[in-house]
Amino acid sequence: MTQTQISAAGGKATSIPMMGGGPEPTIFELSAPGRRCGSLRENGVPMVDPASVIDSAYLREEPLALPEVSERDLVAHFTRLTHRQYSVDLGSYPLGSCTMKYNPKLADTVAGLAGIANTHPLAPVSAIQGWLEVICTVEEYLLEMTGMDAATFAPAAGAQGELTGLLIMRAYHRHRGNHKTKVLIPDSAHGTNPASVTLSGYEAVTVPSNARGLVDVEALRGLVDGEVAGIMLTNPNTVGLFEEDIAEIAAAIHEVDGLLYYDGANLNAIVGVARPGDMGFDIVHSNLHKTFATPHGGGGPGSGPVAVVERLAQFLPGPYPVRAEKGFDLIQPERSIGRVHSHFGNAVVFARALSFMLALGGDGLALMSRVAVLNANYLKALIAEHYPPAYEATCMHEFVATASNLKKASGVRALDVAKALLDRGFHAPTVYFPLIVDEALMIEPTETESRQTLDALAAALIEIAGIAQDGEGAERLHEAPELTPASRVDEARAARHLVTTWDARD
Ligand SMILES: Cc1ncc(COP(=O)(O)O)c(C=O)c1O
Prior knowledge:
This protein has 506 residues and is α/β, with parallel strands linked by helices. The strands form 4 sheets. The protein has a 7-stranded mixed beta sheet, sandwiched between helices. It has helices at residues 50-53, 71-83, 105-112, 114-117, 129-146, 158-176, 192-199, 217-223, 246-255, 276-279, 288-291, 347-383, 404-410, 414-423, 451-467, 471-479, 491-496, and strands at 2-4, 15-17, 150-152, 182-186, 203-207, 228-233, 259-264, 283-286, 306-308, 320-323, 328-331, 399-402, 430-431, 440-443.
């Protein structure tokens, strides 16, 4: 169904789909010359001629080709788009490794407070004492949770935190005159790990997993030599299992003066229960935007603070805030690797995280982790008959199941299952990661989902497995989703021919 827009300022009439109609045009396609968003009457205030204040060398010759739309059309366009999206506010989002959990609205309220939202990052230290207290307090809580001694909040997200941590590792070895060339990474690691290692100038060396989905300690021993700068580990690892041999691994790496890097993108399973510092780790990054109340996945800025043990604090990016005798001050660490972000980082995320930590308190945060683990194990058990877990052990906050049997029996793959879930009102889990599991479905329900939601998600997954059993049903699953605004897209083509810009001259 379409409606024809009545153009108040002339221009072409544009066909606009109503809810549920065809594809939504871009805002540029809705544009008509002369149409304006505001309708303020002439008020006698003279317009400033740009040429009178800006050097002509910097002035555009042609006006910028911005879309010209009415306020009504602007609001309707973006509102229609929001109705076509799935989000954490709509329902379960069991995307493994991503911790897409519901973020309490309290965090939005805090982030919107005038003192938080309206502070200029270049304001003098004396004028931002409150903000510095926010940063120092959230740092103290994070250090307590991770068992570390000092932290930087500058990195904008997890991957940048990894790079920052590895640059700290490199600075440490250079300072000690160590000749190091490689960093070990388990084969189940997140893709950003080897990318960060390569960017930091080291060679990434893969450590195989054993049949239980854990680091193969014997294989690790064979790889450890004097050139190993360190190891990057995710614990719980990306198949959702706790690395039981962590003390042994830490000893082997420390023996060659290597450092242990903890990829704590996802702290959801361990807050208040276990600490990377107590496991022997030296550097930890954590994603505030996963564990602590900031929406992500295209939803907002992230924050990937990096916490380190005492002997590495001298290499942290600076300047960073510390508690002083009176109030708060900035310090520059002695052998700092330099800046990795402008100002203090994505500050609003710190305020959101602090509000979440304060609202839950220590006991509440520990309960968060316990419920996240309970929910994952409950869901794993509900679907095990149809989607067997890749590894039998009790999982942490997430688990990896496989659709391998389903594929053999019916030709229906993990991708088809994921797409069919969209038609049933759920976001898809992560699929085909980690690479070591065939037809992987990586599921992380998070602590924010109720038992009813988990039952409904399991029922949907089981229903899909049932439909796959007859040939016609399997055919339909290959075509899923049927009920979403966009049907099955050619993902290989979409990845290879990314079109992310609009050329106004077309
Ligand atoms: C285990 C792990 N490490 C690192 C990252 C990278 O974090 P970011 O997406 O914030 O850069 C992720 C993100 O999904 C992750 O799951």
